[in-house]
Amino acid sequence: MSELLNFNYPPEPATDRVTLFADVILPLPLPKLYTYRIPFEMNDEVMVGVRVIVQFGGKRVLSCIVADIHENAPADYQAKYILDVLDDKPIVTAPQLKLFKWIADYYMCTLGEVINAALPAALKLSSESRIQLHPHYNPEEDELILAAQEEKIIFALQNNQALTFTEVSTLLQGKPYHKYIKSLIQKEAIIIFEQVSEKFSPKVVKKVRLTEHFVQEEGMLEELFNQLTPQPKQLDVLLNYLQLVPVHQDIHLNYKGIEKGALVNNPHLSASSINTLIKKGVLEQFDQVVSRFPMDKEPQQLPMALSEHQLQAKDEILGLFKEKDTVLLHGVTGSGKTEVYIDLIKHALEGGGQVLYLLPEIALTAQIVTRLMKVFGDKLGVYHSKFSDNERAEVWQGILAGRFQVVVGVRSSVFLPFHDLSLVIIDEEHEASYKQYDPAPRYNARETALVMANLQGTKTLLGSATPSIESYYNCKTGRWGLVSMTKRFGQAQLPEIELINVRDEQHRKNMHSHFSGKLLGAIEARLQRNEQVILFQNRRGYAPFISCDECSWIPKCKFCAVSLSYHKYNNELRCHYCGYHERMPHDCPACGATSLKSMGFGTEKVEDELKLMLPNAEVQRMDLDTTKKKNSYQQIISDFESGRTNVLVGTQMVTKGLDFENVSLVGILNADTIINFPDYRAHERAYQLFVQVSGRAGRKSKPGAVLIQTRDPKQPIFTKVSNNDYQSLYDHEIEERLRFGYPPFTRMIRLTVKHNDEPTAENAAIVLAKDLTDRLGKPQVLGPEVPYIFKIRNLFLQEIHIKLPRETTNLKAAKHQVAQAVFNLRLLPDFKSVRVVVDVDPM
């Protein structure tokens, strides 16, 4: 849609007809819904869940979602008219609207922020201010006194229907243009309007086919051959077409035709001959809307038959679903949970419902999608952030139209317009990646999916080899069902885990840079047997920081209280918090010495050193730096899966659910930094990471080994990992959390106070903490305190943590008190510019 919008509807005549109003969700952080009047002629078009165009403020035009329709005019302002309706049918379903309301309430944000996060960008609208000649102004007849710059604008508008402000600026060669626009408006020579355009556009391909009468009328095709015999190049085009589209076998095939590119890109055919046949009317060219996804095909294979162990797990899950809405599948790595999921999905589809399969990382989707495509074909939709805006919009529309019955995606998939869910699967449910940090809504996709399933009356299956403490607690207390898979699939065995004492290796001078002799030897042995290796290092970049050997200078970020990490590939220093980067200096800016050294190591350095130590090995890296492009995940995984890569070095991306049958060794290079992190979840996360990455080894018939380099091999967490003893971890963690009041026994809310002036941030946090203490009680409010990283993007930070006992707290009332305290802080003159970020259930 692209047209001049009429902002002022004429008053409607007095009749008995009903005047309707619509409450709409604007994509803005507004605390309340805004009400608009529905023009009478749109009464039948405006429905809950459709997009409408409205004017908000002076000249701002926005698309928004209709949340409610009623007959009550707003008491505090005069309702403006809805300008236009964009959809014939709702694009947001009733269950979605309920879910969005829950997200806004639970995570203490606005419905506008939820809608802004939920809708693909291609389903939103953009608007831009433009000018055009005033309808009553005629430059040829009206004698206005115009300045030279004004004359330029009027002359340009006589040759163009409208100009954007950017185009006016270019016309005036960058000179200030606002005063001239204002003057021309006062002289009633121009008017300003908003041109609104819908971003989503279907993918269209050019196709060709034989003109109908050559196929339908007997003998016409033979006659065409005779006519083209003197034109061999044109005859070649015709023969090639008939080879691709055998109309002599089935004339109905001609209707679909073929993509024009199939002929144009053939090096043996003449492009001019193709166009000549189109001009002659032998071929006709037409446009066809097609899917953006190369998955419009029938399933290639049936699901694998489940083993006895898997079948038992499936039957237990279905049995528990009769009593409980949620079940946790606790299966060791390599136990075959994915096959169980596939069988359950197939079972759900037989009932005609939809299935959502949630994954924590895009890296996982590449491998999982390939497997699911072979089973479910074009019933499968995929949804994640690496897709273009139009691709995501197409999945959204495909779910509404019933095209996709199964959707596999990352956390944003919970926003999709499901209306007939019969199963939700949350794989690797323990993953912190399910939590959204910035911007709002700061939701957890695992919890949101559970609520979505509850609203639609469906079942949820969570799966993990290392469940979160909260999820396992829900099972132990009887709230959820629990099914265990304790054996690996087939003949595969859990890998043997060995600890390498880095201190001892250094004393023996057996360290080669960051590799112990034992680890390096094990890698070489695997490569000689044509087996593959995964190395895990939980830092990206070449080195965490650099330092001057003479004066100990360390480069810091200009905007954050962190050192800059060295990235050798780009020869730059980069901040991993705000993205600031600068070139690597040749000498020390402080003392001028040239003895700059990298300190510590990241995945880039591991990759670089391995290539030098093992020149015959193909080493590849998978981290945030190497997976920025759309298909980079898939390419890296494909290279490793096919054997083109021998060693895969990576961050947490390599720990999650990937299945490579030829991996026989996993190395964890620096385990201690993960364990000794200042967070109550540190041991839980360390155990999860170590077990998950260890689980990549020995998944088929080849025995697997895991080598963990540490300076503290007596750390108890390693014993639990070596014995695959999750129960022991859970028992210890649940006791600690009960003792110190952490989830699952409390609900936590973190408030982060931000300001570009450090004393202002500190004082605002003190005032806010005092108000919260008065409202909630001293034991519930911790802080304020300065976080470990106290400045990010030039804003100084202070944190306040709120602990709300789960059994005794009225959560809704407590959140209202928190919101009121934040609101009151912003009313104080000294703190109007202070920003407070509220994070419910922080990870």
TrEMBL record:
<feature type="binding site">
    <location>
        <position position="548"/>
    </location>
    <ligand>
        <name>Zn(2+) 1</name>
    </ligand>
</feature>
<feature type="binding site">
    <location>
        <position position="578"/>
    </location>
    <ligand>
        <name>Zn(2+) 2</name>
    </ligand>
</feature>
<keyword id="KW-0347">Helicase</keyword>
<keyword id="KW-0238">DNA-binding</keyword>
<dbReference type="Pfam" id="PF18319">
    <property type="entry name" value="Zn_ribbon_PriA"/>
</dbReference>
<dbReference type="InterPro" id="IPR011545">
    <property type="entry name" value="DEAD/DEAH_box_helicase_dom"/>
</dbReference>
<keyword id="KW-0639">Primosome</keyword>
<feature type="binding site">
    <location>
        <position position="557"/>
    </location>
    <ligand>
        <name>Zn(2+) 2</name>
    </ligand>
</feature>
<feature type="binding site">
    <location>
        <position position="591"/>
    </location>
    <ligand>
        <name>Zn(2+) 1</name>
    </ligand>
</feature>
<dbReference type="InterPro" id="IPR041236">
    <property type="entry name" value="PriA_C"/>
</dbReference>
<feature type="binding site">
    <location>
        <position position="560"/>
    </location>
    <ligand>
        <name>Zn(2+) 2</name>
    </ligand>
</feature>
<dbReference type="GO" id="GO:0016887">
    <property type="term" value="F:ATP hydrolysis activity"/>
</dbReference>
<feature type="binding site">
    <location>
        <position position="588"/>
    </location>
    <ligand>
        <name>Zn(2+) 1</name>
    </ligand>
</feature>
<comment type="subunit">
    <text>Component of the replication restart primosome.</text>
</comment>
<feature type="domain" description="Helicase C-terminal">
    <location>
        <begin position="583"/>
        <end position="737"/>
    </location>
</feature>
<dbReference type="InterPro" id="IPR005259">
    <property type="entry name" value="PriA"/>
</dbReference>
<keyword id="KW-0479">Metal-binding</keyword>
<dbReference type="GO" id="GO:0006310">
    <property type="term" value="P:DNA recombination"/>
</dbReference>
<dbReference type="InterPro" id="IPR042115">
    <property type="entry name" value="PriA_3primeBD_sf"/>
</dbReference>
<protein>
    <recommendedName>
        <fullName>Replication restart protein PriA</fullName>
        <ecNumber>5.6.2.4</ecNumber>
    </recommendedName>
</protein>
<keyword id="KW-0862">Zinc</keyword>
<dbReference type="GO" id="GO:1990077">
    <property type="term" value="C:primosome complex"/>
</dbReference>
<dbReference type="GO" id="GO:0006269">
    <property type="term" value="P:DNA replication, synthesis of primer"/>
</dbReference>
<dbReference type="Pfam" id="PF17764">
    <property type="entry name" value="PriA_3primeBD"/>
</dbReference>
<dbReference type="InterPro" id="IPR001650">
    <property type="entry name" value="Helicase_C-like"/>
</dbReference>
<dbReference type="Pfam" id="PF00271">
    <property type="entry name" value="Helicase_C"/>
</dbReference>
<dbReference type="GO" id="GO:0043138">
    <property type="term" value="F:3'-5' DNA helicase activity"/>
</dbReference>
<dbReference type="Pfam" id="PF18074">
    <property type="entry name" value="PriA_C"/>
</dbReference>
<dbReference type="GO" id="GO:0006270">
    <property type="term" value="P:DNA replication initiation"/>
</dbReference>
<dbReference type="GO" id="GO:0008270">
    <property type="term" value="F:zinc ion binding"/>
</dbReference>
<dbReference type="InterPro" id="IPR041222">
    <property type="entry name" value="PriA_3primeBD"/>
</dbReference>
<keyword id="KW-0547">Nucleotide-binding</keyword>
<dbReference type="GO" id="GO:0005524">
    <property type="term" value="F:ATP binding"/>
</dbReference>
<dbReference type="Pfam" id="PF00270">
    <property type="entry name" value="DEAD"/>
</dbReference>
<feature type="binding site">
    <location>
        <position position="575"/>
    </location>
    <ligand>
        <name>Zn(2+) 2</name>
    </ligand>
</feature>
<dbReference type="GO" id="GO:0003677">
    <property type="term" value="F:DNA binding"/>
</dbReference>
<dbReference type="InterPro" id="IPR027417">
    <property type="entry name" value="P-loop_NTPase"/>
</dbReference>
<keyword id="KW-0067">ATP-binding</keyword>
<dbReference type="GO" id="GO:0006302">
    <property type="term" value="P:double-strand break repair"/>
</dbReference>
<feature type="binding site">
    <location>
        <position position="551"/>
    </location>
    <ligand>
        <name>Zn(2+) 1</name>
    </ligand>
</feature>
<keyword id="KW-0235">DNA replication</keyword>
<keyword id="KW-0378">Hydrolase</keyword>
